[in-house]
Amino acid sequence: MTQSAKRVVLASRPVGEPKPSDFRIEDYTAPPPGDGQVLLRTIWLSLDPYMRGRMNDGPSYAAPVPVGGVMEGGTVAEVIASNNPGFAKGDIVLSRAGWQTHALSDGKGLAKIDPKLAPVSTAVGVLGMPGLTAYTGLLEIGKPQAGETVVVAAASGAVGSAVGQIAKIKGARAIGIAGGKDKCDYVKNELGFDDCLDHRDPDLAAKLKDACPKGIDVYFENVGGAVFEAVFPLLNTFARVPVCGLIAHYNDTEATVPKWAASMMRAVLTKRLTIRGFIVGDFAARHGDFLRDMSGWVREGKVKYKEFVTDGLDSAPAAFMGLLKGANFGKQLVRVGPDKA
Amino acid sequence: MTQSAKRVVLASRPVGEPKPSDFRIEDYTAPPPGDGQVLLRTIWLSLDPYMRGRMNDGPSYAAPVPVGGVMEGGTVAEVIASNNPGFAKGDIVLSRAGWQTHALSDGKGLAKIDPKLAPVSTAVGVLGMPGLTAYTGLLEIGKPQAGETVVVAAASGAVGSAVGQIAKIKGARAIGIAGGKDKCDYVKNELGFDDCLDHRDPDLAAKLKDACPKGIDVYFENVGGAVFEAVFPLLNTFARVPVCGLIAHYNDTEATVPKWAASMMRAVLTKRLTIRGFIVGDFAARHGDFLRDMSGWVREGKVKYKEFVTDGLDSAPAAFMGLLKGANFGKQLVRVGPDKA
């Protein structure tokens, strides 16, 4: 009744870009479930940019992963043994078991997934946290109106692809920014954005201006850096900037008190901008609306999604390092185990 | 039926701090009112920081004053001749006649003032634009809750003094920042703020931290500069920053595309801050609520106000240059003419 298992722990806190030695893969033996517990077998591990923040010490909206601790993450898992009356062997659940092949749980925070409704991997993708981030940030803060221009970066990614497609559903123009021709073609031709620009293009600012002749009304900020600087001068009066990520800065090693506020704040004032940070948990109350709308849109083909899968838990560190550089093309998933054991 | 008159025009666009030669005082003859017109005699001219922006060319939320044009401004005036059936000789009106002793108007944009309700100067002060700015920015964007901490700079001024007093009415703690001991004493002892700090104190950041042991939930931004930098690290998760002015930067000569976004935006994200610019006209729909609430609070003594008066239109340029440096103590007014001619 014990189980050979594997986990990825944080070996050391990265300075700047994470490197392979910041992770350590450990073999261990998963014990049988105790009273009230279930034993989970991971099928899918979701890799997401926020995880870079958990590798750092210091204040943020969530506690850091301790050095030596299992890397955090959302998973789709099968219950393979249960001493909890709420769960049966064979149940598929959404959990936060992290980067490991097996995990014990007392059932708290687990949500059952119905495999008949959609591929179970969507529970950590378009119908999960990334989809909910796109849906709530865009609709609760961005509030795009018909005819307005919405810009989103990482446009082929899990969040960005949903943002642009929801903007289109709401009648807005959607302009994506992505890395490279293949992603841009996909965003335009498959996802139906009005345009998509390559952030590696040295003329990004000029091309973005051409692509947004009426300026930008909503900038969904998940990137920061050069993209933000190209977007900022194009923001219209009353533009809204939901901020859910800053992947361009996650490896920054300096964090100083800002000394530069004047020019940005002047634009906030004269253009009456709204810049508002959020994390997906802030809008937990919208989860029901999200599931209803998003699953409908996916069914009707109005929202498409793309998955980018690497194989085996061992691949997680490299896949995550690649994700921070945009090496993935679509929602980054790790196939940790088969659908059925 | 013609009238000797005087006006202050913009002689040249200031570079940095305005200087006396940027203004020119002109004598002229005000013609009698034509068909449908009224002739106004200015009693009070309001001087406000936003006027610095009107002296610049370049994009903002309002058109600049042309070189040679009369400086813009709100006034309280008496109708001294009328060919407009809506107004009678002797009516007191709120107008935007600018920096001049007399003005013609077709009646559009004039609002009658009842001198029995309150001193007429309050129509450009606590019951006018500055009061409405404080009321709407604090209540519509800042949304202070009982027990929260609200910080406002220029706390003895027209807007700041109202912000802190309204915050107190709503059950919040109010911390002011002002220039010098006299103003701070007034803010604490007369206006009833919980504390007031001197922005000239080299230990401002440390003292502000002591004065806000539970952090800052609302920062009403009308100043920018060093005060913003002291406030920013103390903002709590979900803090709100209504931005209505940046007087510390109005004389800046550089306006570059921001290159510094990372650290501020990181805080916006992790603390889920809301930073939102506004001007008073954005909340015109709240004017009725404002007048009802604010006139009640003034009557009950819950909101006090202080006026700082210089005498004669000729004093306006120097008074305005002083206002930008905080030389005024209370709402800056120019007494252009007597209450009754």
How would you portray this structure in words?
2 copies of one chain form a homodimer. With 341 residues, the first copy, chain A, is α/β, with parallel strands linked by helices. The first copy, chain A, has 2 domains: 3-125 and 306-335, Medium-chain alcohol dehydrogenases, catalytic domain (Quinone Oxidoreductase, Chain A, domain 1, Alpha-Beta Complex), CATH 3.90.180.10; 129-299, 3-Layer(aba) Sandwich (Rossmann fold). Chain A is 25% helix and 25% strand. Chain A contains 9 helices and 15 strands. Chain A has helices at 51-54, 129-142, 158-169, 181-190, 204-211, 225-231, 261-270, 287-299, 316-323; strands spanning 3-10, 23-30, 38-46, 75-82, 92-95, 102-105, 111-112, 149-152, 173-178, 195-198, 216-220, 235-243, 274-277, 307-311, 331-335. In chain A, the strands form 3 sheets. In chain A, strands 3, 4, 5, 6, 7, 14 and 15 form a 7-stranded mixed β-sheet that branches. In chain A, helix 2 crosses helix 3 (158-169) and helix 2 crosses helix 8 (287-299). Chain A is globular and about 65 Å long. The model of chain A is unreliable at 255-260 (pLDDT under 50). Strand 13 (274-277) of chain A pairs antiparallel with strand 13 (274-277) of chain B. Chains A, B: Keywords: Oxidoreductase. Chains A, B: It holds the Pfam family ADH_zinc_N. Chains A, B: Residues 16-334 form the Enoyl reductase (ER) domain. Chains A, B: This is Enoyl reductase (ER) domain-containing protein. Chains A, B: Residues 1-22 are annotated as: Disordered.
